[in-house]
Amino acid sequence: MTTLSIVGISGSLSNPSRTTVLVEAILKAIADRSGHKTKLLRLSDSAPALFAATSPADIGKDARQFLDLIEGADLLVVGTPVYRASYTGALKHVFDLVDHRRFGSKPVALAATGGSPLHGLVIEHQLRPLFGFLNALTLPTSVYAVEGDFSNYAISSTAIHERIERVVAEALTQLARSRPEPLDARSAATAAIA
Amino acid sequence: MPTVLVISSSPSEKSKTATLAQYVTDHLSSIAMDARHLRLRNLPPAALVRADTSDPAIAEAAALVKSADGVVLVTPTYKASYSGLLKVFLDLLPQYALAGKAILPLATGGTLAHALMLDYALRPVLHSLGARHCVQGHFVIESVIDPASREPITDKRYGDMLAEVIGQFDGAVNYARKAA
User: InterPro entries under this entry (chain A) (predicted)?
Assistant: First the structure.
């Protein structure tokens, strides 16, 4: 089986964090359904290295590894807590540092957590345009969860679990599409057209 | 005299965004405002990202916002939005930190195609912070900013447009002072 890089990033700097729990749950569902390994990047661990860099040219080794994983991912799962009706500044700083040319057609699952349903549109109005700029392929289903969807930092809502299943199905469809066909299959198809 | 805080949010040392912010600060001072330019890149990054308001430099910056009658936000355009550095600072302010203040949003960017980021990306964040009097913003294309020149806005049309939005902001600051 081809090794795919499936990377999750949580824009929360808190620990424990509902956002991180949500990103982990999406990663786990992908792993369970596909058998692929996944990797979670914690901004809380890497923030000092990332914030020491103000421009991509100044990036140190630790921050570079972090950005390489994001840029090189075959599938990204991005989650953020809602701060001031948008993504966190720390998460935006990470995406300020990445090379936008590495995101073309990359499938991205979007998730957010907020204190109330009032901010449910943050994904559509703030997160999706950011990944639109990056030319990424944001998956149609996104997951927005509020405090009441968790109990003791575990997802307790069936509606959220169902949405996770939907976004994971979409993610796996995209991964299957993006994987290159074997060469002989491709030349056979070309021959059939000719 | 009304107090105005001009916040520039480019992480780069040599920055056209900071040049624009200083230009606006000087302009505000020339129309009898007590204007001060805060460069977010000079704040300690570790404390900033952890929203550590016990850090003296962070506490001082937050106090400057609190005491200002008006706030000018100047951001570079990164990935068709405001900079992460600006958002990190706004994240650590109290929830309604901009309530009762006049706000002028300004941005620099490489292409005019991103001018709507002021209205689509930044403005909702400002309103979330309680801003109720956010005057028309302005997007300044990088090619008309020359940090090395004594006249850093090299295109007169941009200078005139900036004077226009600064005039609107001046009115809003005075209104905010009266309403307070």
Answer: Flavoprotein-like_sf, FMN_Rdtase-like_dom, FMN_Rdtase_MsuE-like, NAD(P)H-dep_FMN_reductase
Say what the pTM is.
Answer: 0.92
- The CATH number given to A6-193 is 3.40.50.360
Q: Are B24 and B162 in contact (CB under 8 A)?
A: yes
Quote the minimal CA–CA distance from B1 to chain A in Å: 30
Percent of chain A with pLDDT over 90: 78
User: Would you place residue A194 in the very low, low, confident or very high pLDDT band (cuts 50, 70, 90)?
Assistant: very low
Strands annotated E in A54-142 = 75-81, 107-114, 137-138
Domains of chain B: 3-179 (3.40.50.360)
pLDDT band per the 50, 70, 90 thresholds, residue A181:
low
Q: Which chain A residues are within 8 Å of B94, Cβ to Cβ?
A: none
d(CA B20, CA B9): 11
Query: Taking CB atoms and an 8 Å limit, are B49 and A55 in contact across chains?
Result: no
The two structure tokens encoding residue B133: 């009097």
Our CA-based measurement puts residue B144 at a distance from the nearest CA of chain A, in whole angstroms, of 22
- Note the pLDDT tens digit of each residue in B129-150: 999 899 999 999 999 999 999 9
Which helix (H) or strand (E) segment is B70 a member of? Answer: strand B70-76
Contacts of A54 in chain B (CB under 8 A): 11-13, 41, 85
| Cβ(B137)–Cβ(B104) below 8 Å | yes
The domains of chain A are located at 6-193
